[in-house]
TrEMBL record:
<dbReference type="Pfam" id="PF01522">
    <property type="entry name" value="Polysacc_deac_1"/>
</dbReference>
<dbReference type="InterPro" id="IPR002509">
    <property type="entry name" value="NODB_dom"/>
</dbReference>
<dbReference type="InterPro" id="IPR011330">
    <property type="entry name" value="Glyco_hydro/deAcase_b/a-brl"/>
</dbReference>
<feature type="domain" description="NodB homology">
    <location>
        <begin position="2"/>
        <end position="189"/>
    </location>
</feature>
<comment type="similarity">
    <text>Belongs to the polysaccharide deacetylase family.</text>
</comment>
<protein>
    <recommendedName>
        <fullName>Chitooligosaccharide deacetylase</fullName>
    </recommendedName>
</protein>
<dbReference type="InterPro" id="IPR050248">
    <property type="entry name" value="Polysacc_deacetylase_ArnD"/>
</dbReference>
<comment type="function">
    <text>Is involved in generating a small heat-stable compound (Nod), an acylated oligomer of N-acetylglucosamine, that stimulates mitosis in various plant protoplasts.</text>
</comment>
Length: 215
């Protein structure tokens, strides 16, 4: 297996995220958490995000509501999904101002961004992280570990893995997954592969336009 860049979407969840952080701390693994902005209005959820940052994990923007992908929204609404979350994140943001669009089940394509959203991300010097492995823990909380391990085995380069710290029971298996993956040779803490970062500090990279809808 190759390097793994571990990420978590759709939190923070006060009933789940602390357990995830406990597992990562025991295994000394750094991850990146892409947060749904509206959840940060809950002080308990914000405390989870602050703990994650304090423990060395990176924090990113995963839209305000995680509703329809931004490429299917109007210009003003799409920009607000990004900008309002940035405001809620505040000092939780790192220097790269990370952003991950929601894909509607892990799909990639021009539905991820519309032109207004893309222009906003460029203007505000965001870095966009996509993905190349989504094992579906959000829909298969008991079986996702086997799927994730198979995805790691199939990758020939760094795996940018997306898990979800959601209250569906899937994260009860996180420690087992990390152990089995490490036993099979996975090395956690890798940087994201270049083809999963189509925008870097506001500078479009090759292929960025493939994720922007002009409709």
């Amino acid at each position: 297996m190759v390097g793994v860049c571990l990420t978590f979407d759709n939190g923070p969840e006060p009933g789940v995220t602390p357990g995830v952080l406990d597992v990562l701390a025991r295994r000394r693994i750094a991850a990146t958490f892409f947060l749904v902005g509206e959840k940060l209005r809950d002080p308990a959820a914000r405390a989870c995000a602050e703990r994650a940052k304090a423990e060395g994990h990176a924090i990113g923007n995963h839209t305000l509501t995680h509703g329809e992908p931004l490429g299917r929204r109007g210009a003003e609404e799409a920009v607000a999904e990004i900008a309002e979350t940035d405001a809620l994140l505040g000092a939780l943001h790192g220097p790269d101002r990370l952003f991950r669009p929601n894909g509607g089940g892990g799909r990639l394509g021009p539905h991820l961004l519309n032109r207004a959203a893309a222009d906003h991300l460029v203007a505000h010097r965001h870095t966009v992280w996509l993905w190349n492995a989504v094992p579906g823990d959000f829909r298969d909380p008991e079986g996702w570990v086997a799927t994730a391990l198979a995805m790691l085995r199939a990758q020939r380069e760094t795996t940018l893995l997306v898990l979800h710290d959601l209250p569906n029971g899937a994260m009860r298996h996180l420690d087992r997954f990390l152990g089995e993956a490490a036993d099979a040779g996975a090395v956690f803490g890798a940087p994201p592969p270049e083809d999963c970062v189509p925008l870097r500090r506001g500078v479009p990279q090759p292929g960025f336009e493939r994720f922007v809808s002009e409709a």
